[in-house]
Each structure stands twice: as C-alpha cells, then as structure tokens.
Amino acid sequence: MKNSKIIAYSGVATALSVVMLFLGSLIWVLAYTMPLVASLIMIILLDSISQKSAILTFVSTSVISFILLSDKECLLLYVLFFGYYPLIRDKINDIKPKFLSVLLKYLTFNASMILTQILCVYVFGIPFDDMLGKWGIVIFIICLNLVFAVYDKLYDLLLKLYRIKLKKKVEKYIK
Asked: Which residues, at least 6 apart from 147, have a Cβ–Cβ distance to it below 8 Å?
C-alpha cells in the first residue's frame, strides 16, 4: 500500500478517535468509556493496514487531543493505556505460560490507571472523587479491573467479528 493511502487512513482514524475523546471530554459519564471505544479503531488499522499506521494514529490522536480536549482525565486514559494497548496486546498474548501473559496485562493496566490518577490529581489538579470514603479507591480499582476484563474479551470478539464480517469490505476500499 502506498504511503499516501496509509497516511490518509491514519488521518481518518485519528479524526474519528479525537471526536470520540472529545465526546468523552464533553459528557462526564463518557470520560471512561470513550478512550476504550477509541482504542477499538486500532482493530481495523492493525489488521488491515499496518502497525505503522496504528502507531501514527496513536501518536497523532494523543497530540491533537492534548491540544483540544479540556478533560485531561479522558486524554490520559487514552494516552497512558487504551491508545497503545492494542499495539502491544498481541505480543503480550504470545507470552507463555498463559498466567504470565494475564499477569502482565493486569500489571500494565493497573500501573497505567494509577499513573493516570496521580497525574490527574497532582499535575492537573483534578480532585479525586472521595464519595465512598477510604474504601472508594479499592472499589474504584476493582471496578476498573472488571471493566478491563470485559474490554479484553470484547476486543477478541470484535476482532473475530471484524475478520468474519467486515474485513473484505474494508479491504476493498483500502486497495
């Protein structure tokens, strides 16, 4: 595929990702879900175009979103985990034995979420919502890990669905 086509598709994917993150920035309920949804765009890029285009999309989405978005928590969730996770996911899945692969996924996820919260509170001055007291952080982490488990399974299912139903149609337009 020509470089111009790769750049064009990466640009469209970047624009779509930025719009999703912008929605997450506008509507507080979507602040945690839109970075996740934006990362699913990588399925098409990684499977049908190239890893280079996915990296280009991740970097450009991150830079443009940093400039445009007012909600830095939504941005940090994308930049520190959901944006690059599809890029490293297959390499982590290849690790044997399987429990090491799963452990590395969860360690990466939790480290990213903790770093996101630290940056939000201490760098950007976003107060942590302490509605549930000292147990609020524990409940928050448990809920985040449950969401990640669902996301990881959903990613597998969407990848299969994409390959079965959409890949031929998408590649027809790409060629």
From this structure: 32, 36
Please state, in angstroms and rounded to a whole number, the distance separating the CA atoms of residues 43 and 93.
15
CA-based nearest residue to 154, from 47, 43, 32: 43
- Spatial distance between the Cα atoms of 144 and 105, rounded to a whole number of angstroms: 13
CB atoms within 10 A of CB 128: 12
Q: Let me know: does 61 contact 17? Beta carbons within 8 Å.
A: yes
The residue type of 172 is K
State the CB neighbour count (10 A cutoff) for residue 165: 9
Tens digit of each residue's pLDDT (9 = 90 or more) over 94-126: 999 999 999 999 999 999 998 988 898 888 887
Q: Identity (one letter) of the amino acid at 122? A: Y
Residue-wise pLDDT tens digits, 127-139: 766 666 667 778 8
Cα 96 to chain centroid, rounded: 24
pLDDT per position as a tens digit, 55-95: 999 999 999 999 999 888 899 999 999 999 999 999 999 99
Cα distance between residue 143 and residue 158, in whole Å: 22
**Residue 117: its pLDDT value, please?**
83
